[in-house]
Amino acid sequence: MDAALLRPGAGRTRRGDARERPHGGGRPGGRSRTGPRGLPRGNPHARPGDVADAGQDRGGAAGAAARDPDPPGRALGDAEGHGAVLQEDPLLSPEDRARALRRRRGPLGVRRSAPRRRHPLSGHRCRHAGHHARARGAPRREGPRDAVGPDRTRTDGDGALLSRRQQARVAVLGTGSWGTTFGKILADGGASVTMWARRPEIAAEISRTHRNSDYLPGITLPDGLSATSDLKVALAGASHVFVAVPSQTLRDNLTAIRPLLAPGATVVSLMKGVEKSTGLRMSEVIIESLGIDPGRVAVASGPNLALEIAREQPTAAVISSSRLETAQSVAMLARNGYFRSFVNTDVIGTEFGGVLKNLIAVAIGIVDGVGYGENTKASIITRGLVEMTDFAVARGAKAETLAGLAGLGDLIATCQSPLSRNNTAGRLLGQGYSFQAVVKQMQQTAEGLASVAPVLELAREIGVEMPIVEQVKQVLDGTLDPRDIAPHLTTDSDEPQGERTSDDSEETSGGPLRRTFKRAFDQLRNGRRGALGDRP
Ligand SMILES: NC(=O)C1=CN([C@@H]2O[C@H](COP(=O)(O)OP(=O)(O)OC[C@H]3O[C@@H](n4cnc5c(N)ncnc54)[C@H](OP(=O)(O)O)[C@@H]3O)[C@@H](O)[C@H]2O)C=CC1
Ligand SMILES: O=C(CO)COP(=O)(O)O
């Protein structure tokens, strides 16, 4: 790697004065920055390939041996680390710790069996038989399989009820961290899942060993999931096709998908980016490239860090489609004991929530890398949500969607977690590394890096101010010292201003007022029916 690229602070100048400022020595937090290859603390989960920026294809490489099966970002309560956090909690006395552990594990530290867990988000008792171990000695099935599944009822893409004995056959395209995790979610919900991997060795590993050690080390995938590198095999007879490839590669992939798609199949975007060359959302690219009715397209978004979900830590998501029945049919598939899907019809808000939170997560990573504390981060998250909401509402979204799982929920998760690739990329930038060096270091898709420019272009088109995203762009371009990102949170003006949330001011470019009228108009046009919000 070019040493100049890694030189902290290379080429950066402080905003407002043209001084060069060496950056990287006196970090306020004083934490150690050294990581593998002399790089600072980076993505804790090295994976193959580069960041999927600007339509770059990503290569293979790096095997399972290089992976950290138990990354530092692991949250409490996973299968392997049960009780570990309690054991280490310095705020508990030894007696309290022992008591708490007994409560968790039952007497003598033995785990209680929980044949039917109550769903932590909805309260109902639910089955997720899909991942239960197969009978001893029974062979694993490879390739797509047919019908006959668990006793359950759900709808197909047209909202029709499937028989209680029928099992949905679905395809997931992309075997990275999210595609594989979503495949597991669907299989644990009872579907028969065929994954498409572009690398045959990954398909073989998934089908033969039920592992994807490149992306989800330590995770055993359920029996109801297999993989192939043959797109035709993956798509054959699939009622629902879930797509999880880097956003900038979607259009090319759709060209191959189009002739193989089963008639009437629903296509679901799991991606959180916009196409750089057109500024289109992923669902728009799908509709345009496949030439299908928007009612056959859905998107999934929410606070969904893949590795946490792969460890079956409970979370929720929003499934959105312009056709409610489509969203419902997808939500019926994407639910199990640890994953809950809500539905809405606000595709714009749901998609932009996922795109925009990535940009704010990069900003949070930057200030984290600089060493600023919680006040700075809370200010950026709060102001960031205003930017996200202003932008999305001006593009036709419902404000409430941005206050839900696909907006605020995902913003919190991504800004807080070291598992986030966008957050990690920002942290490296904040530590003084150049954009090129960060791209080299990142080994998974960090959509935010490619979305900054098209989002700002769209924002300019509609007259929405996005000062935080502007500053992220300047840091990426090397024209703003990362330490200067926070003082300009709201404005360059010294004049005191109101917080200017999406509703409380009408003084700037008529934006909020215009949006209020537009919302009222939209409600009238829709017979006062709004999006359904996070409604299960
Ligand atoms: N990871 C997460 O927690 C979440 C991710 N998402 C979104 O999901 C999408 C995918 O992300 P994620 O799975 O995490 O990314 P990863 O980087 O983990 O994996 C990317 C996947 O896409 C494949 N791929 C790369 N380039 C191409 C190409 N040109 N054509 C076809 N396939 C390609 C990779 O294959 P190969 O292994 O051969 O390189 C790999 O299977 C992104 O939009 C992301 O924002 C959404 C929610 C959560
Ligand atoms: O979208 C995500 C969590 O909801 C994943 O975020 P990253 O792409 O930053 O890892």
From TrEMBL:
Pfam families: NAD_Gly3P_dh_C, NAD_Gly3P_dh_N. Its EC number is 1.1.1.94. Residues 1-159, 481-536 are annotated as: Disordered. Sn-glycerol 3-phosphate binds at K272, G302, K357, D410, S420, R421, N422. Residues 31-42 have a biased composition (Low complexity). It catalyses: sn-glycerol 3-phosphate + NADP(+) = dihydroxyacetone phosphate + NADPH + H(+); sn-glycerol 3-phosphate + NAD(+) = dihydroxyacetone phosphate + NADH + H(+). NADPH binds at S177, W178, R198, R199, Y215, K272, A306, R421, E447. Residues 346-485 form the Glycerol-3-phosphate dehydrogenase NAD-dependent C-terminal domain. InterPro entries: 6-PGluconate_DH-like_C_sf, 6PGD_dom2, G3P_DH_NAD-dep, G3P_DH_NAD-dep_C, G3P_DH_NAD-dep_N, NAD(P)-bd_dom_sf. GO terms for molecular function: glycerol-3-phosphate dehydrogenase (NAD+) activity; glycerol-3-phosphate dehydrogenase (NADP+) activity; NAD binding. The active site is at K357 (proton acceptor). Residues 14-23, 67-81, 139-157 have a biased composition (Basic and acidic residues). Residues 170-326 form the Glycerol-3-phosphate dehydrogenase NAD-dependent N-terminal domain. It is found in: Cytoplasm. Residues 113-138 have a biased composition (Basic residues). Its main location: cytoplasm. Gene3D superfamilies: N-(1-d-carboxylethyl)-l-norvaline Dehydrogenase, domain 2, NAD(P)-binding Rossmann-like Domain. Keywords: Cytoplasm, Lipid biosynthesis, Lipid metabolism, NAD, NADP, Nucleotide-binding, Oxidoreductase, Phospholipid biosynthesis, Phospholipid metabolism. Pathway: Membrane lipid metabolism; glycerophospholipid metabolism. It is an enzyme of class 1 (oxidoreductase). GO terms for biological process: carbohydrate metabolic process; glycerol-3-phosphate biosynthetic process; glycerol-3-phosphate catabolic process; glycerophospholipid metabolic process; phospholipid biosynthetic process. Catalyzes the reduction of the glycolytic intermediate dihydroxyacetone phosphate (DHAP) to sn-glycerol 3-phosphate (G3P), the key precursor for phospholipid synthesis. Belongs to the NAD-dependent glycerol-3-phosphate dehydrogenase family. HAMAP family: NAD_Glyc3P_dehydrog. This is Glycerol-3-phosphate dehydrogenase [NAD(P)+]. It comes from Labedella endophytica. The lineage of its organism: Bacteria, Bacillati, Actinomycetota, Actinomycetes, Micrococcales. The gene is gpsA.
